[in-house]
Amino acid sequence: MTGSGPETAAERRRGGSAAGPQQRGTGARALFRELTGGDAAGVWSAPGRVNLIGEHTDYNEGFVLPFAIDRRTAVAAAPRADGLLRVVSTFGDGPVELPVAELGRAHAAGELRGWSAYPLGVAWALGEFGADLSAVPGADLAIDSSVPVGAGLSSSAAIESAVALALTELWGLELSRETLAKVGQRAENDAVGAPTGIMDQSASLLGERDAAVFLDCRSLAAEVVPLGFAEAGLVLRVIDTGVRHEHATGGYRERRASCEAGAAALGVPALRDLEVADLDRARELLDDITFRRVKHVVTEDRRVLDTVRTLRADGAAAIGPLLDASHVSMRDDFEISVPELDVAVAAARAAGAVGARMTGGGFGGAAIALVPAEAVPALSAEVEKAFAARGFAPPAQFTVVPSDGAHRDP
Ligand code: ADP
Ligand code: MG
Fold this sequence. Notes:
The protein is of the alpha+beta class and about 400 residues long. It folds into two domains: about 10-225, Ribosomal Protein S5, domain 2, CATH 3.30.230; about 235-400, 2-Layer Sandwich (Alpha-Beta Plaits). It is built from 13 helices and 13 strands. The chain has a six-stranded mixed sheet. Strand 4 (about 85-90) and strand 5 (about 95-100) form a beta hairpin. It is globular and about 60 Å long. Magnesium ion (MG) binds near residues 154 and 156.
């Protein structure tokens, strides 16, 4: 494995984070030429995602409603004749190279590390889902992205999904998009070592313009649900608090353990199997903390179903109270919010958002606000003011548009 100089990597990082959605593809093609001296056979790209509603429901085998956003990771790629896999990214240093025939050994030896564990892990995981990697020629992959890394918009699923689709088409593999979502999840769980569900990859691979992906995390059945934000005169703002807590991973594990304990005590395979009406019994059987964890998950599943029904029956403007209730549940019952997220949500609501909530795993990260287009400037100002008043660093605020899932770029 080889690495380029630190200056190059730093410059590339700056370039990568500044790239806007409209630049997708061009950075990857240029990087590919830098890597190989030739042109890519094609560019494949996949989006990051925002979860509209359904938090900590995935590992409880419940429901989530994410959508693909207009920030994408692009992979310029071409096959190689010599069985070598080479990856380079505007974000990471590199290039990193490994023979395809070595993927299994390198994975077993724990040698897939750092950012390249994502693309190389995906290549390895394709073999775990039935692809015959002994028959493929190798590939050069050059990666560029406009998805901010580590901001809760799932740059990880974007890189996994883009690489999975690029290699599948480049190597002529026959794997469905549902399978590619599992490939990305396997890479992230086993090669990178991050315990994540399948929501992010499903949104990135199955998303469609102006729509969300309604995913049943037990059956993995996915349905595309039109959002109609634009028709309703609404935009979705992301308020990234910039807060990243050390204890996020520990907190995630603890919440997961509480949910499993709650399900076991109530005699169901997963919290998905409980209804809101079962909560009275749960309150009697469980200690207060476990009860409140269970209550969040059971009511959040209900809110996802209600959001889907409301979107279909009454349109996007009517889902605000469900977003608000989701936030309160995460703040008071699941206890995964932080003051910055609560201030962002309160300020957004005060400035005219129809609904707002923290999104993602919690302990920091971003809030989302669904807001009339004309209220966006007032909302930005109100959030800035509220953060300044509390002595918080100013958050990054931007609009995301529900967009197409992974595809080959024209
Ligand atoms: P998030 O998914 O919220 O952005 P994660 O920690 O799950 O944050 O994933 C971020 C990691 O994924 C990065 O640290 C890096 O290792 C990898 N990654 C994401 N995008 C890219 C990219 N364009 N190039 C290289 N690595 C990337
Ligand atoms: Mg991620």
